[in-house]
Amino acid sequence: MRIRLAILIVGGWLIPIIAAPAMNRWQALSMIESGDDDRAVGPVGEVSRFQIRPELWPGGNSQNVRDALAAAQEVMKPRLEAFEKSHGRPATDVEFYVLWNAPWQADHPSKAVTERARRFLNLVVRR
């Protein structure tokens, strides 16, 4: 993560402002899905900090950060590839979240998915 420093001048005073660092997509996804809780279990049995449905979990320790990230990336790889092939471009950050949360809604996300995607985008926005 990069931390940016800006200087604000107010009434002749120099005031340092530290901007909150942007997260990468995987960090933001973990934060949105579970609050980075490696022990989280969702209502239909989703596991890991990424809340991966049990039928998609490829194996490994769901409470291990590296295993969870590898599993999440494995789940997303074909979704991202299919999106890029059909749209002729990589997914935006919002589309990335929609592909994670509701891939069947990639082109027309519901209001609830759109709202969660906005929250996700707020974490990954790069200033």
Distance between the termini: 12 Å
**H/E series:** EEHHHH
**Number of E strands:** 2
Quick one: biggest sheet?
A: 2 strands, antiparallel
Spans of at least 5 consecutive residues whose pLDDT stays below 50 are none
Using the 3D structure, state the CATH architecture.
Orthogonal Bundle
Determine the mean pLDDT.
Answer: 86
The CATH class, by name, is: Mainly Alpha
Number of helices: 4
Strand order of the largest sheet: 1-2
CATH topology: Lysozyme
CA-based gyration radius: 17 Å
Give the tally of structural domains. Answer: 1
Q: What spatial form do the alpha-carbon principal axes imply?
A: globular
- The secondary-structure class comes to alpha+beta
Beta-strand share of residues: 5-15%
Determine the fraction of residues in helical runs and give it as a percent range.
Answer: 40-55%
What does this structure look like?
It is built from 4 helices and 2 strands; from the N terminus they run ββαααα. It is globular, with a radius of gyration of 17 Å. By secondary structure, it is α+β, with helices and mostly antiparallel strands. α1 packs across α4 (111-124) and α3 (93-101) packs across α4 (111-124).
